[in-house]
Write a structure and sequence with these properties.
Keywords: NADP, Oxidoreductase
Radius of gyration: 19 Å
Family: Belongs to the short-chain dehydrogenases/reductases (SDR) family.
Shape: globular
GO molecular function, one term: oxidoreductase activity, acting on the CH-OH group of donors, NAD or NADP as acceptor
Strand content: 5-15%
Number of helices: 9
Number of strands: 7
Protein name: NAD(P)-binding protein
Largest sheet: 7 strands, parallel
Length: 281
């Protein structure tokens, strides 16, 4: 006899659940925050900025949820632990997290310095050692979920750069950091499954942001067009392209999904528009 089919819409609800977002003051992190709040979830943000984007202040009244912001230096263990404890005190319980901080540098591999590499690892992995910060914020959340004896979901932010290197884009340190995040998610998904804790990733392509525009401005016209037009859908991703997948992976709609990676690249991970990326000589 076939299983009784559940209604789909309620599966995506996050009402009454509590989430921790790192790097949520702006960009992808804030987009994830807003989406979670829209679906009824409460959110605590940890970020280095003094205050988040102005829209953050409207989320409580707009969606009837609780929101908290704690200035936290994600590269310092004491600050990270303190920020987590303050977030936990405010939320009471935690049902998942989205570590979302990240930067990139476009520079030839042989010219990248120790300091530049370290800074990328500090932010993308939120600490001075490779993926250490993401490792430990997820560890803190995991310990709390086990203590609560509740299920949960983590959504880590990987990248197309976890999978491919594009001609003309010299981001070896960034690729290394995001590749580490992708593999960390898979290892944790296997280990934490016995606790009913799921760990997945999304891999955005080039996202239309100040950082991406600054990289494009440093390129030749051909290289700039390559970034903008190479995906088969012939545009960059926006933050709005990512939030549906984040909500799905946090929600019960993905209750049997773990160790998965959703590539949101406009098709760039599968191929490029003819003539936009020059073939190797």
């Amino acid at each position: 006899m076939a299983d009784k089919l559940d209604n789909v819409r309620p599966m995506f609800e996050l009402r009454g659940r509590n989430y921790l977002i790192t790097g949520g003051a702006q960009g992808i992190g804030f987009a994830a925050t807003r989406a979670i709040c829209e679906m009824g979830g409460n959110v605590a943000i940890l970020d280095i900025q003094d205050r988040p984007t102005e829209e953050f202040e409207t989320l409580t009244s707009k969606f009837g949820v609780k929101t908290f912001y704690y200035k936290t230096d994600l590269t310092q263990q004491n600050s990270l632990n303190s920020g987590f404890e303050r977030a936990l005190e405010s939320l009471g319980t935690i049902d998942g997290c989205v570590p979302a901080a990240g930067i990139a540098i476009d520079k030839p591999f042989v010219e990248q310095t120790w300091e530049e590499f370290t800074r990328i690892q500090e932010i993308n992995a939120s600490s001075r050692s490779f993926v250490r910060g993401v490792f430990f914020i997820v560890q803190l959340v995991t310990k709390q979920m086990i203590k609560q004896n509740t299920a949960g979901s983590m959504v880590l932010i990987a990248s197309q750069s976890s999978h491919i290197g594009l001609p003309g884009y010299r981001m070896a340190a960034y690729n290394a950091s995001k590749g580490g995040i992708l593999m960390l998610s898979k290892a944790l998904a296997v280990e934490l499954a016995k606790h009913n804790i799921r760990v997945n990733t999304i891999s955005p392509g080039f996202v239309d942001s100040d950082m991406t525009r600054n990289v494009r401005a440093s390129k030749s016209k051909r290289e700039g067009d390559q970034m903008w037009l190479a995906p088969p859908l012939q545009r960059l991703s926006t933050q709005n392209d990512l939030t549906g997948a984040i909500v799905y992976l946090l929600s019960d709609a993905s209750r049997h999904t773990t160790a998965a990676d959703i590539q949101i690249t406009g098709g760039l991970h599968a191929g490029t528009i003819d003539g936009v990326i020059d073939p190797p000589a």
